[in-house]
Fold these 4 entries.
Entry 1:
Amino acid sequence: MSKAVFSLWHREIVRFLRDRSRLTGSLMQPVIFWVLFSGALNNSVQFGGMENYSEYFFSGTLAMITLFTAIFATITVIEDRKEGFLQGVLVSPVPRAAIALGKILGGATLGVGLAVIFLVLAPFAGISLELGNVLMGLGVLTLLAVAVTGLGFVLAWLMDSAAGYHGIMMLFLMPMLLLSGAFFPIEKAHWLISWIRHVNPMTYGVGALRHALHGEAQGCPTFAVCLIGTTVFAVATFSLGTYVVTRRSARDAA
């Protein structure tokens, strides 16, 4: 099983690194968002008790990088189906859980790797990179990357069209990111938005990142609650990914 997981993981890494457009789009689009929003709102108002908007939005940008990377990485499930690779894997003696684990770990590794590259820019946002904060941030990023990649894997496994997949991903994941407080504080928003915020799993991932990197996060649940929520999100999406793989046969995946 471990060899199968490693092979699928390695295949995802190599495919991503060879596709420069995917690499550039996954990293540069969130960076451009951060630069543009920070330039427009940096000194206009304080957010969450932080000195400027670039500091507030930094954690949200890290979450955005993991989300965009999940979108680009899990679309390979549809490509593998059309190329026949997926059918070959499904008829092999490889455990179905290994298929889900290899694909999800591959996408999660890419998400964490790109987020680490962006993390180097933290001093420009007024965030000091202390070892303890960095290690906690990396742990949270790993959980969040597994969670959103798992969700993307489930949606990609159930869909046959790459165009439809992108539409569904934007329909689900972008509102999840926007309603998590990644861009703006929403704890004082309309009661319906505030209610959605509490059931939105991305809220806990973004909140955990803020706690890890800043030491505090006004308007967010405690670090323990955010960490538990992110862990439950990751376990749930991985479990769901394993379930859909075991429920769909090679013939169904054609």
Entry 2:
Amino acid sequence: MNSFILAVSTMVGTIVGAGIFGIPYVVTISGIAPAVFSFLLLLLVVTLLHLFFGEVCLRTSGKHRLVGYAEIYLGKWGRFFASITLFFVLVGTLLAYLILVGHFGEIILQDFPRISGLFVSVVFSIIALILVFVGRQLIAKIEFFTNIAFVGAIAALVIFALPHLGNLNIPFIGLTGSANLFLPFGVLLFALVGFEAIPEVMSFLRDRKANTKLDNVIVASTLVSGFFLLLFTVIVLLVSGSSSSQDAFSGLVPFLGKGIVWFGATIGIVVIADSFLVIGNYLKNSLRHDFKVPTVPAAILAVGAPLALFLLGIREFIQVISVVGGLIGALEGILIILLFQKAKVKGDRTPEYSIKVPSFVLLFIALLLVGGAAATLLL
């Protein structure tokens, strides 16, 4: 199978995750103009950040993850900062996925009331643990086929929704308060970022000795993901408009019928499984390469940590995704900018591509991420 397609599938599968379901709702609150502006700005910023991190990976010999790169270029304090960032972001993201899996599982199995969302999330975690233990090559192939299923599901949704498309009764600018103008920032950032997939994709291409260039994979994956997010959002809003719900699909029921809820939940499981596997594998490999944890305990920790938080009762999806999304840009984004600058000077190998960016652009991105995160957390 073509290495470029598999690599893009892996990265798209990481990016297109739980965040996609929250976008239509925040557009109805903020208005079209702030949402479109935030989407275009963040699509550009995230593409650059992905390329920055890709160059860091290519300038460094050996296999590392975010924590390893931080120690190499920033020292012990960098390792400590990256460790906190990594586990907070990844475990929080995986926890959000588990919460949605349980919710969507209950919808799919609504005719079997004895099967709870808790049971579905635990079973999902066991299956994910097995796949994460097996590793990257199997996951890449699974990503390819699940992405085909996702594209097919989106196409089916478009066809099913066409007869029900109505007026886009969303205000140009939300009238419920100026603070809501910043509402799309955190959700869109959470939905677009896919840092964790980049070292995995680089290792995948090297293991295959593929001629595919990492920068081409990064740009294609980010743009394709952005297209899917935009398409999904437009279709949902054209059907449900200002009645869009926080999970996207339940708000479609009055317009498309109860069947769309089951259909939407099925799509949700497919999308979440994609991202969960890649991020879980990334966390496992970070524990292996950066902390020298053996493979089996690393896989158990990667999947078990979010499951433990879920079992302890942390199951409020909106709260989890808000906190993770609000900080993901400020913490990971700034860390990657610092690594990018250091790797330009201290990198021990010639990269396959090199991005030249003026210092004021890096400063602008850093200030944007900090300001956006602060606005998101203060809402």
Entry 3:
Amino acid sequence: MGIEVVVEGLTKSFGKQNIWQDVSLTLPAGEVSVMLGPSGTGKTVFLKSIIGLLKPEQGRVLINGVDMVNSSERDIMETRKLFGLMFQDGALFGSMSLFDNIAFPLREHTRKKESEIRRIVMERIDVVGLLGAEGKLPGEISGGMRKRAGLARALVLDPQIILCDEPDSGLDPVRTAYLSQLLIDLNAQIDATMLIVTHNLDIAATVPDNMGMLFCRNLVTFGPREVLLTSDTPVVSQFLAGRREGPIGMSEEKDAATLAAEQLVDTAPLHTGPRTVVPQLEPSPGMPVRQGALRRRERVMSMMGQLPEAARTAILDSYTPAAGGARA
């Protein structure tokens, strides 16, 4: 089972530039979470701070009692072994075959024999659908295949926490749909805690149990997916609708004068009633039941009284037989 990740009061700057401040959230054990946000809002910086590759100025990241911000380097390095990290571009070595790329963490961090390494690597290659391509170089395969190879490499050390940095970047909608299903199937198989950083609305709408959004140096919200997907907060509505009208500008947030001018223009209303929350993806036929989804259902039902009405309605609809019964 995956491990809970508790983030408390995290603040990160580069020089005088504040990236985000006082971010607090909990990634529930074994569940899939997504962090949304416009480009340039520090989503990748957030991932690197969780795993201890960047040092925030304030706050804590607690994993199994270890603080990834303030603990000793030895404890941080040991805890980092619990993670699998999938980078935007796959981060593969161009001169190595896919097999050797995926085997690299095992050869680097374990003393396993080559026969055992081969068994593990081929299992992971099979899981991500790359059987037959293991001898190819990264430059000889498509971007989507490189993504899957990067995911296979993230899985070889049996991580309990998986971080995916924009796994959809450079993929067409069909490949993104396949990748989304693969992430859900993986969660069903290994019950790892997963955090996906993305600005892809299809992944956001169909994959996660929980969703958050970074904007204007703050965490706008984090919680059950239905809270964000039904939110009428202007920045959330604008982002989910992909509209120009709203607080998000080309480079950063718009100033007050620009927002006021927009409101004088006769444009379509930002909010046109409650948004339909599409069903979350289910594991493929033959896959085990997602244990994270079962835990999530119990957890969310216990907090219903704290949620907005639109989110409560969407949650109850998702758990009715007509909506698919055991949907999470």
Entry 4:
Amino acid sequence: MNNILLVEDDPAIVRSLMEFLRNEGFDAAYADGQRRALDLLAGTRFDLVLIDVSLREGNGFSLCMAIKQLYNIPIIFLTAADDEYSVVTGLELGGDDYISKPFRPRELITRIKAVLRRAGKSQREIEIGNVCINLDRGVAYKKGEELLLSALEYRLLLLFFNNRGVALSRNRLLAELWDLAGDFVNDNTLTVYIKRLRDKIEDDPSNPVIIRTVRGIGYKAGD
């Protein structure tokens, strides 16, 4: 799973973008300025850095130069400054791509995947038990056989796999599925989809080991 560092000091953007990246199958961390970003890079392996040019502490251009001097990590600039000078400056300093705010989340994911492919760091697979998800292809397999999942079933499975070991309440599942799929999912519908998913991924759906019920809370995938 690819690990992405977001360098952004707008809390609203951080909150929404971090959630989106994680739901798309990425590990993600964030820093609100240059010093914190360099501290994180020193202790953690990241595959790509998203940098806002305008930061309260330092700026994206100077941070890009510092990163490129120390690490071989691709960088995408995120900024409202889409004038030609800013674009050229960012790319000349070593930036691998440049996307202007406001951006479409799907476009950002496409750009991220393209940069990772060029850098030889494309996403691989996430796996629990004998079920794995190929994040590049957006498909799931059980024992090497492709699972026929609806779009909402795939999103639900990805949500569980991205939160391995975390007990997810039904309210959180409902909220995140609504945000991701744009479909109306009520409590009864969620029960139906979890049953369908278990029927497809569990060896014994009546005794699930991949998506387990946590009494009084909700569900948990994996350990």
